[in-house]
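User: I'm new to structure prediction. If I give you an amino acid sequence, what do you actually give back? Let's try with this one:
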Amino acid sequence: MTRPTPETLAHSARRARAAADPSVDVDPAVARPATTPAVPAVRPSAPAQVNGAGSLVRSLEALDVDVVFGIPGGAILPAYDPLYDSSVRHILVRHEQGAGHAATGYAQATGKVGVCIATSGPGATNLVTPIADAYMDSVAMVAITGQVASPSIGTDAFQEADIQGITLPITKHNFLVQNAEEIPQVLAEAFHLASSGRPGPVLVDIPKDVLQAQTTFSWPPTLDLPGYRPTLHPHGKQIREAARLMAAARRPVLYVGGGVLKAGATDGLRRLAELTGIPVVTTLMALGAFPDSHQQHLGMPGMHGTVAAVYGLQKADLIIALGARFDDRVTGKLDSFAPDATVVHADIDPAEIGKNRHVDVPIVGDAKHVIDELIGAVTVERSAGRSTDLGDWWTQLDDLRNRYPLGYDEPADGTLSPQYVIKRLGEIVGPDAIFVAGVGQHQMWASQFISYEKPYTWLNSGGLGTMGYAVPAAMGAKVGKPDTVVWAVDGDGCFQMTNQELATCALEGIPVKIAVINNGNLGMVRQWQTLFYNERYSNTDLGTHKHRIPDFVKLAEALGCIGLRCENAADVDKTIAAAMEINDAPVVIDFVVGKDAMVWPMVAAGTSNDEIMFARGVRPVFDEDDI
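Assistant: Good question. You get back a string of structure tokens that encode the predicted 3D arrangement of the chain. For your 627 residues, that looks like this:
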């Protein structure tokens, strides 16, 4: 077995970047590391004689895994025999990419570890995209792959691929199991690594002969992870300094990222925001962490964020970043981002602190603990009479919110507006549903025009931007939350990449609902062609309008689903209502919308956030003192 080391554990590449940045304080005196807990003995087991495959399946049962998504094949086939009699539900997907995204959707919706299984070679390499997707979005996933027999490794054997080497840059850690006795320990360590600290995907590669070898299974094993001790509790000095800055700032902003959701810190976030009165922005990965309807919420920042959110960050004198990573879609041109802001950056991964933006107060710790301790420290500051009146700041921000609200123009040609469809979908379905988006224009409209009032109701591929994410991720979310309504908002381009998983949904009794925003094109690419390539529409017309190929209603029916179509605004509400009445089968609605709609506001890639456009040819007008 490949034993974890400090260099390969806990985002090794990110740690290397952190080591090069002296602004990141990871000294033990400042960041108090937590001890590595023992693996939970969910189902203790007396020693039993089994083969490696039996040990694998028993380990999954002991780890309280209720479902795995996968496809059998030669190298992994031994594992499928004991799985046949297991309490673990196996869902047979139609493509390994679907298995990976389903595991991700399950994990995002439930907070548990998502599990996917594939065979060696092409089965394993088909998992690379969802593994990379989970890595970018910090999702707890364990991918189990079969491998050719140990003597054949390195010989270019049939269906051999070095999946451990391939995925090394995109996994939190990975293992190649070398003997059957190691399987319980490796699985326990994989689940602990995936779910603790900054979550992420872990790969476990098991040769076929190891699965077939006889061994003794017992539970629980002992974890052996030298060097892996995520820091959960922040250092008090850093917290006190952050609270002092928050009390003195005149233009502060709470910049909230997906780490707040990962830490289960949303209640604390609301208390902190209301205690301080500081404006809140939530990134694409953090939608739902703070209610959209809350008066202090400015919306989403970044390339397609609200004018108020982008302006708020840009003109802030203090940014308190909580579980966010200052990625390029938020900052725009980095050297012009928030030039006057002092930065407090709290993250459980020390490598993220100072990676993109200089940090004045680095705080290493779990977002829940950080926020709870900030509340205490801010309360002390306020009790001592140290606080700032933010009235002028809110006057500026409210003025921008009033002058530049999110909105859209009805299509001049009378076609159905995609923004209207998505807005009505959110209003009719309500805030208790889970919405899952693909990638592109429909993803941005879903982030803008659906109101997210509760955490864990918005799932999307943020960092990697994976087309084809929505349908299988919605399937995984519905499996994890069977009593919750789950809608996928997908584009006609994304939908054609992974819609085969609707056959899985139909056969497995997973009644997801899919709203296909069919504009006949690769919409976001077409928008860029309109704006930056002189309307030269090279290879973005999909033919789903002109030729109705495929016919999404017929395709849905062929995949065992109910297919509906809506082409005008008058039918939107009743079509959504009809879909909501169907709870015993997957439903697909083909919303045929206009092709010329664009996502606004927009900060063009590589430009400064100061250059945000409210609409095509319309730049927001700020007060003279703010320019």
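You can read the tokens as a compact description of the fold. Here is one thing that stands out. Residues 1-41 have pLDDT under 50 and may be disordered.
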